[in-house]
Amino acid sequence: MRSAIGAGPVxxxxxxxxxxxxxxxxxxxxxxLRRLAFLPAIFLVSVVxxxxxxxxxxxxLVGIIIVNYVGALLLRRASARRVLPVFIxxxxxxxxxxxYAHFVGVNLDLLLGTGLGAMTAKITxxxxxxxxxxxxxxxxxxxxxxxxxxxxxxxxxxxxQSFFPHLIxxxxxxxxxxxxxxxxxxxxxxxxxxxxxRFAHGLMKKVVIADNVAPIADAVFSLPAGEAGxxxxxxxxxxxxxxxxxxxxGYSDMAIGLAMMFGIRFTENxxxxxxxxxxxxxxxxxxxxxxSWFRDYLYVPLGGNRGGSLTTxxxxxxxxxATGLWHGAGWTFLCWGLFHGxxxxxxxxxxxxxxxxxxxxxxxxxxxxxxVLFGWVLFRADDLGRTVDLWSAMLQPFAVxxxxxxxxxxxxxPYSLAAMAxxxxxxxxxxxxxFGLRLMRQAEQRARPVLDLAYSVGAxxxxxxxxxxxxxxxxxxxxx
Amino acid sequence: MRNAPLILxxxxxxxxxxxxxxxxxxxxxxxxTDIYGGSDHPEFPRIxxxxxxxxxxxxxxxxxxHRSVAMKEAIRLRSWIGYRLVGxxxxxxxxxxxxxxxxxxxxFPQGACLDAGRAARDLTQLETLIDLTRAAGxxxxxxxxxxxxxxxxxxxxxxxxxxxxxxxxxxxLLRAMMRDHAPRLIDHAPPIxxxxxxxxxxxxxxxxxxxxxxxxxxxxxxxxxxxxxPGAAIPPPTASSAMLQQQTDxxxxxxxxxxxxAPRPELTWRNALxxxxxxxxxxxxxxxxxxFYGVLLRDLQAVFPGxxxxxxxxxxxxxxxxxxxxxxxxxxxVERSLLPxxxxxxxxWDSPIVTALVARNRARAEGCMDFAxxxxxxxxxxxxxxxxxxxxxxxxxxxxxxxxxxxxxxLADNSGAFVPGRAVDLELTRDGAQVTLVLPEGVTAAExxxxxxxxxxxxxxxxxxARPDLASDQRPSETP
Lengths: 480, 480
Prior knowledge:
Chain A has helices spanning 16-32, 34-54, 58-77, 80-112, 116-120, 129-144, 154-162, 164-167, 175-183, 189-221, 230-261, 279-285, 288-302, 309-327, 331-357, 360-380, 384-394, 403-410, 414-423, 435-444, 449-469. Chain A is mostly helical and 480 residues long. The longest helix of chain A is centred in the N-terminal third of the chain and has 33 residues, at 80-112. Chain A is globular, with a radius of gyration of 23 Å. Chain B has 480 residues and is an alpha/beta fold. Chain B is built from 15 helices and 17 strands.
């Protein structure tokens, strides 16, 4: 995913080093020490995991944990009004510095010639900072609101904040939702088995589908201006929609599965978003933990929908601009957030009632999916000019392309086409419980064990081959 | 049977555990596997680096996994499935063509196709280097071996066209640019294409190797020798019944280990080459080559006794001492690497090879005489008219303000025009603030560019020197 979750090399769950080196050791340590030092072991392996990704910047994670642990304790004693803004501000300052300082600097350069762009050019984004800062803020806010008590055990809080399954790319887990599992993990053969099924499923989504449709999206989005035709533009948009869904939801599946192996249950993050019939519904199904975070910690404090229609629309737009910027420091991200915010407002303002009169299928395929695809073009494009170029192509059905041109422009291969065909099922599947969640529940209940075993083993073997061979870089050795 | 679900659950967990430890387990059981893929096993990073730098743990992980038989067999399995079952291979280095042919991905640029302006500039720069080297008294010949896709474009995959979308544009453009901006380049494509047209059944490149067959190589060699030794009678090569079995490099990269047979040229033809007059007795020829001329090495050694040799791919320091004594330098590059080598590789102004060539020119320039200072402005100068047997010399003296400064000497051609690439780039230092060069014939003016913050021109003088005798000054441009 382009810059949404961090910059620089990141240890991802689909990396062979994570699967074949880190994970077995982490499982052995944590499960081996589960009676003696479960939480310290989780904290230790999670810091090592983050060190693997971010190097010495792991100190930043530890620092944030200490600051927020202390902050929450202070919230118990001092007046919340004085202490909370300070600690929220510290968290946001970290996020701003690493994520937005250069973007702001560059734009100030353009406007005022400040030279800040050059000064901030070397600031790089530590992996996952957007996620764990938001998690820390949610913890402080929940303590401030009295929904939870401040955690007095450092290792309980540290384990929650640093837990490696959610550390780099979410889900954004609320303290109150998981602390019970951290204190009394639901370890057992069935939860571990459920975690394996979920992890295998997520790995396959990422490695088999997302990574194989990505070249189609990359090819279309890097075409020179004016070269994309109607079909290639829509194929590129659809490919990116599949890539980002299978990549992100696959990662969430792996995170949920990994957490299950340690006896901890995470909230679901994706509920078949491409089955949505409106943008409003889309945001109840897509990256649910992020949208609920913004709802609870920005939308509601702004007043939510309690201040009349205009205030509601304003609040929605603010939340979605913030959502867009959270994904990346760039004008395209901001515009993408605004794009969705505007449709949310439009649905409330103009089209909500008429929309309800259309069939679910019509809503999905004639309204919601096209809007979402147009939005993904904005999200993925390098700049607004590129966005307009592809949008124009998507709106010109008479710009016909030959099969040869289509093949050239999409760089299709048998593998990417097969992945796209499999992945495109998500555009037609109904909006019920996601397959991953059903797999996990069935595994936990030992339902359909033969199918579960066959699917999990098949997914692991296929994905494992792709993962381990992905690092192979032979040399065209010149033996003369 | 009531325990069947539990047993299957345990089997699943056991399979998962084996999956996680398979590479490390295979390493422990079978030991380190032999090297494969044409490259050594990656080295382990130093412990100190692992703790200090991001990405070093990945290097460590890669070093471990690469040594395991599990990874090797996974690569072999994946390649076998792709090549034999699916019929399409698509890796970072190798991509399938038609009918089982394989191509090297580096033949095809990622992203934008070749830019004419960039190609023109690079080739002009190469031509300038040739001129400067010849002015130093070295007979410099540059030849280009065509990519396989240039000779056999019909074997590129006709359905999956994305990876070679630039090829129909780049190939002809590069050839046109070579003719226009570097007319002295020997392009081996025309005679090989002519040989292919004459005998389509004779394969001149291997199907699963990047290189030409012995007959393709012999066709190129004949063209080279005709250019280096004009007037020599060199018959066209004929194929013998003796077959060479080539273990093909692209299949080896896929760990498929295929061999392909190809006829050798007749022994009588090869013996005839050895009888060619290679030049004056002590005429020392240096070959700077990649693997394509590696195929021709024995024949070249027969034609040029005492042939000196320098390859592009070296680990460690490149020994360019042979350049100091060579009378003739034959430089060969494969087509895909030609422009990159000129822009930022072995043929760039900063490279050890070109630095040594410039040093030869500067050594010859010590024999320049009759220097006269040029009037202000020092950075723009017109060359005096010289007799045909003389070449101009340029002496530049700078006053250094910093430790080093880049000096660019742009050379105008016969028409007085300055073109991009027609310039010599040198580095001045405090110890070497004066540089004298023998300029090529036909230079009518020069412009000097020096960063005034780093150095200023203090004196510019023009002299003269006798034109050197070279073994060949004119070469036929037609294929023999």
